[in-house]
Amino acid sequence: MTLECKNVWEHISEYLDQQLDPKLLTDIEKHLENCEVCSAILDSTRNILVLTADDRTYELPVGYSERLHTRLEKVIREKGPSENESA
Amino acid sequence: MPATVEREKELIARIIAGETNLFHELIRPYERMVYLSILTMVRNQQEAEDGAQEVMINAFRHLKSFRGDAKFSTWLVTIAMNEARQRLRKAKAAQLESLDEGKEDREGDFTPAVLTDWREIPSEALEKKEIRQKLREAVEQLPPLYREVLVLRDLEELNQEETASALGIKVTLVKVRLHRARMMLQKMLAPYLITATPARKGFFGRMFQ
Predict the structure, then answer these.
(1) Which one of A82, B136, B189, B202 has the minimum C-beta count within 10 Å?
(2) Do B146 and B72 share a structural domain?
């Protein structure tokens, strides 16, 4: 079956997550081999996801961890989890 | 690295039994995940930090109700997303964006940005700080329903089932929303990616002769 570009676009997400059934996957890969537009869309989307997961894209504020554990320490000292079961 | 499931179970049992100081160790691998889950939803650093602290405190106080049938990380991120949604609801902006729009869950009818003169973002472009800034801005612009799915799947890298469980929605809905979120990002970011990338028509010309 020959796929049109817009049929390929509908499946880009599943393609990237490797969730396509084998038949559709074959058709899409055949289309991608011959369609630079769809290949570019696929590559750009994949690269965006690589960037999203990259640790440098989102950074923690300086001192975040220290402040978190300091606050937790106060709560932990006040009462243990076993004393507050029904909360 | 997160502790193994077995190690976590042991830690949790010991914390509940009274070694409460071990809670610090239990949550350390997830500090980043909890903060970023909230940050990407509320879009404010101070709110996100306050929220992350509340989440960890809540997790400590309710640790006994963690059943162990889900992963501890999923349980924690569920609490984080609830905290984020609560804070979003409180914020004025949330009223405009509405968390309850169901009609956006149609699949298809999405046209990505069409690019013809580049194939891949070269690694130098991916290294640029501006691209990361643009990406953060683009994520912020996604409607919350799509943003929360994208954040859990593509930033926190939870699997579909964990994402569905953390958000209280079906896996099919996770897939639909994720696809749309990714396509929205592609559309928003493509122009910046092009300007960051020299055209390589010659390369394509040769390739498709």
Answers:
(1) B202
(2) no
Task: Measure the CA–CA gap between A28 and A12, rounded to whole angstroms.
Answer: 9
Which residues on A lie below 8 Å from B175 (Cβ)? 13-14, 19
- Of B156, B152, B100, residue with least CA distance to A54: B156
CA distance between the termini of chain A: 59
Backbone angles phi, psi at B35, to 5 degrees: -60, -50
Assess if residue B169 is contained within a domain. yes
Q: How far does the CA of residue A2 sit from the closest CA of chain B (Å)?
A: 18
**Residue B143's domain is classified under what CATH number?**
1.10.10.10
- Residue B121 · residue B200 · CB < 8 Å: no
The domains of chain A are located at 5-80
* Tens digits of residue pLDDT in A23-77: 999 999 999 999 988 988 898 899 899 899 999 999 999 999 999 999 999 999 9
Q: Does the predicted model carry a pTM greater than 0.90?
A: no
Yes or no: say if B160 and B174 are a contact pair by the CB < 8 Å rule: yes
Interface test with B, best of A16, A17, A51, A86 (most B CBs within 10 A): A51
Radius of gyration of chain B (CA): 20
Q: What is the complex's ipTM, to 2 decimals?
A: 0.87
CA distances from A13 to B26, B59, B97, B168, B198 (A): 34, 33, 24, 21, 26
Per the structure, the complete domain to which residue B13 belongs is given by: 5-96
Of A13, A51, A68, the CB nearest to B178: A13
| Residue B117 identity | D
